[in-house]
Amino acid sequence: MSIFDRFKKKKAEASEAQNNKNTSAQPAAASKEMLDDISYIQEMQHISGAWQQYDILLAARGYGWDMMVDWAAYMESADLDNISTITVAEMANTPGKELIEEYRNRKTKGGIKAFDALAEERGQLAIGGISRTLKAPVKIVWFNQTRVLRFFTPIDDEELLTRYVETVIRRTFGKKDAMKLAKPVPKEK
Predict the structure, then answer these.
(1) Which of 104, 109, 142, 184 gets the highest tally of CB atoms within 10 A of its CB?
(2) Which pTM does this prediction carry?
(3) Sign of the CA dihedral running 180, 181, 183, 188
(4) 108 phi/psi in degrees, rounded to 5
(5) What whole-number distance in Å separates Cα of residue 59 and Cα of residue 57?
């Protein structure tokens, strides 16, 4: 059974559970409470399809390769289970090289930070697996020396994904500020 099929099955089970007034099977929507801080998300564009694509423009300066690998390592430990893809590409619009088999079969174990194939700087890094928070597949793509992040998931819920992305950026999984929105970035005049 594919990851997408498992997600559809879990989604149907969650819907049935909700109809039975059992809310424990729903994805973690968390508090509607807002952070007393400005969002790191300047803009988000949502492209609908079989997989929802969320393109995020950060309100901070760009990031580099070391931060990308560090972020992927954080997601590996904080939220992603059953990692099914790790890809790199030389540039943003070039085909990626899948590294998941190499990652699974390496002799020296350890997390993504210890993965030798990520020692060389590249233009793009992506990691995908099952989000413990969203209870659904998610793939995150970082683009070196930019302010752009890209998220793919079957979940079609902009507010939930905004909360998730804010948590990814702030690295607050498992903390009191997880899955909370921050105040929008003020518009320049």
Answers:
(1) 142
(2) 0.80
(3) positive
(4) -95, 115
(5) 7
Number of H helices, E strands in the chain: 4, 9
> CB neighbours of 16 closer than 8 A, spacing ≥ 6?
none
Residue 15 CA, distance from chain mean position:
23
* Contact assessment for residue 55 and residue 150, using Cβ atoms and an 8 Å cutoff: yes
Structure tokens at 77: 């430990």
Helix (H) or strand (E) holding 83, with range, is strand 80-89
CB within 8 Å of 33: residues ≥ 6 apart: 180
pLDDT of residue 19: 43
Residue spans of alpha helices (H) in 50-114: 65-78, 100-105
> What's the rounded mean pLDDT across residues 170-183?
88
Q: State the Cα–Cα distance between residues 22 and 114, nearest whole angstrom.
A: 41
Q: What is the pLDDT of residues 76-90, one digit of tens each?
A: 999 999 999 999 999
